[in-house]
Amino acid sequence: LTERFELFVNCHEVCNAYTELNDPVVQRERFKDQLKDVAAGDDEAMQVDETFCKALEYGLPPTGGWGLGVDRMAMLLSDSQNIKEVLLFPAMKPEETGPVPAKAAADLTPWESHKRAMTAASKEGEEKGKEIAGLAKLGGMKFFCTQIETAEGDLELLEHAMKAMNLKENPGDKEKKEESTDIGKMIFSAGEDCLSIVTYVPKDQVEEVDAMEWTSEVLRTLEVPVEFMQGVPKPFYATAIVPKDMSAKRLPVKMKDVAHQSAMKYLIDKGVHRA
Fold first, then answer.
1. CB count, 10 Å around CB of 228?
2. Cα 92 from chain centroid (whole Å)
3. 224: which of 5, 57, 95, 161 is 20 to 30 A away, CA to CA?
């Protein structure tokens, strides 16, 4: 919807009028502008909808129109001031039974609470994976950094988000989805007590970027030892937990932004990402 106006006659609203943007070239450019906002961290920006753009190419002429409903016409003819007075089928007021209270977080068992957190992190990971795939499709990038808010600094939840990002498409799915499996990623999550980092690099790209080296460089920028890497880091996968340290002024939220900038600088210096 690009334009909209309402027609009033003698203080009565007669109709709603509108035009729609049906130029596929202009619409695709607007989607690309949205992807720039995604890259800048705007979670509400839209992805490229190629199906919609293709539909505009084949199916929709320039569209505009106006609408005048029977109820509004009846309001005008009867000189009523409120359309509710002339509605042929007014909405029935539902019985006031009161809202069904959601189960409070405090009432959840530890298992239920953990399951809810896992679901939220996986969902955010899947959504971020689609955004990254859309950016890669347009810009040809092979590496990306982003943040997962719902993990709240929990490394296990952050790893589940990474798994959701790398989840391959099911051949049985009717709707094709974008995949980011072939894109190297470093994701961050800041909690109350620590900053967690998960790094993934496709095995056929480790000669360009080594996950251990990439993670080590971020830890060096944060001025913490590489021993903060967890488990057995590999060239294609590494994780790290950086605990909060008030005496060293290491706050998870601040470290997250510094780590993100450091990770992007590493990619630019390696020549695998444009500045």
1. 18
2. 38
3. 161
Residue 159 gets which letter from DSSP?
Answer: H
Residues whose CB is less than 8 angstroms from the CB of residue 181 and which lie 6 or more positions away in sequence, other chains included: 166, 167, 168, 202
22, 40 Cβ separation under 8 angstroms: no
Distance CA 135, CA 142 (A): 10
Hey, where are the domains in the chain? 3-85, 114-270
The CATH number of the domain covering residues in 114-270: 3.10.310.40
Between 230 and 34, the more confident residue is 230
Residue 103 has pLDDT above 70, yes or no: no
Sign of CA dihedral 136, 273, 127, 29: negative
Q: How many CA atoms lie within 13 A of 65 on its CB side?
A: 5
Q: What residue ranges in the chain does DSSP mark as E strands?
A: 3-9, 12-20, 63-67, 143-147, 184-190, 194-200, 229-234, 237-243
Position 137 pLDDT exceeds 90: no
Quick count: other Cβ atoms within 10 Å of Cβ 23? 16
CB-based burial label for 204 (10 Å; 0-12, 13-18, 19+):
exposed
